[in-house]
Design brief:
Order of helices and strands: HHEHEEEEHEEHH
Strand content: 15-25%
Largest sheet: 5 strands, mixed, barrel
Number of domains: 2
Distance between the termini: 81 Å
Radius of gyration: 38 Å
Number of strands: 7
Structural class: alpha+beta
Shape: elongated
Number of helices: 6
Helix content: 25-40%
CATH architecture of the largest domain: Beta Barrel
Oligomer: single chain
Strand order of the largest sheet: 2-4-5-7-6
């Protein structure tokens, strides 16, 4: 059995044969690639955890008992154009709650929400403030219509809008991040992009469901806005792929180094085997004579 000293001396000799600079460069490249793969895997795993937490929150909150929106998220804050989030956000465990909204729709507050496709079709969604009985207001996504029918939807919505008190259910969501747009309509569901009421507001918006205050019935001008589809996605498999790459990088570096060492020891490669020429095994056949042909017949 070889002693540890002899193995170490052979390893040192091999390292010298390869070259210390080559080994240093290889080690640095391997360390950089492994680090990048590990970081990318952790990033993908973090996205997986975030989505898993969001799905768990949705399943927990969406199945909670139905309650009035002012009980789940009381109106508060003094909204203005300079405060995109209009004060504090939703209370804990409030997002995705199914709530009831009872109040009066403000017809002058209707705003078109652009750039929101529904079922892969170009669409316009319609936002409006609903004035609640306690004096607060809540922003409601009433429904959607095809963008190609915008000219027809506006007058139909104005005539179909209930004038008195309405009551409907919806899903409570957090306000979206403001993108700074301040032109006609809205591109984000946030108070800064709509005409803000003078009183306190609910720190979140409601996506109307069922008949959307009679506006989403079969003969209504709007369709119900579907809730987003929540899925884990491929992030966990991507994370494992990155970590597998991190494990394979050192293996590949060792194999490449061994190949280069073999080429260095035998630059010309293995000597080609001598070519052996074989002689014809048979002589050219002799032509048959006339007598031999007659004997054969």
């Amino acid at each position: 059995m070889d002693s540890p000293g002899s193995r170490a001396s052979r390893a040192l000799a091999v390292a010298r044969e390869i070259g210390w600079l080559r080994l240093l460069v290889t080690a640095l490249v391997v360390a950089a690639l492994v680090t990048l793969c590990v970081i990318a895997g952790r990033w993908q795993y973090g996205r997986h955890v975030t989505r898993a937490d969001a799905i768990a929150e949705f399943e927990s909150n969406h199945t909670a008992p139905v309650a009035a929106v002012e009980d789940v998220a009381p109106a508060s804050g003094v909204p203005s154009w300079d405060t995109p989030d209009a004060g504090a956000g939703l209370p804990a465990d409030a997002e995705w709650r199914t709530v009831t909204v009872t109040g009066t729709i403000d017809p002058d507050s209707i705003v078109e929400l652009r750039n929101r496709a529904v079922d892969s079709a170009a669409a316009l969604q319609y936002l409006a403030w609903v004035d609640l009985a306690d004096g607060g207001s809540v922003l409601v996504n009433l429904g959607w219509a095809p963008a190609s029918l915008a000219d027809e939807t506006a007058p139909a919505l104005a005539s179909a809008l209930p004038s008195g008190q309405v009551a409907f259910e919806g899903t409570l969501r957090e306000f979206e991040a403001d993108d700074g747009r301040r032109d006609d309509g809205a591109t984000r569901i946030v108070p800064a992009q709509v005409r803000v009421p003078s009183g306190a507001i609910v720190p979140g918006y409601v996506v109307a469901t069922a008949d959307c205050a009679t506006l989403c019935r079969d003969d209504g001008p709007l369709g119900e806005v579907p809730l987003p589809t929540l899925s884990l996605g491929p992030h966990l498999s991507y994370a494992w792929q990155w970590w597998a790459f991190a494990a394979l990088v050192p293996v590949g570096a060792v194999l490449l180094t061994r190949r280069d060492l073999e080429l260095k020891r035998s630059p010309g490669g293995p000597a080609p085997s001598p070519r052996v020429e074989t002689k014809p095994s048979r002589r050219r056949a002799r032509a048959l004579s006339d007598e031999e042909i007659e004997d054969a017949l």
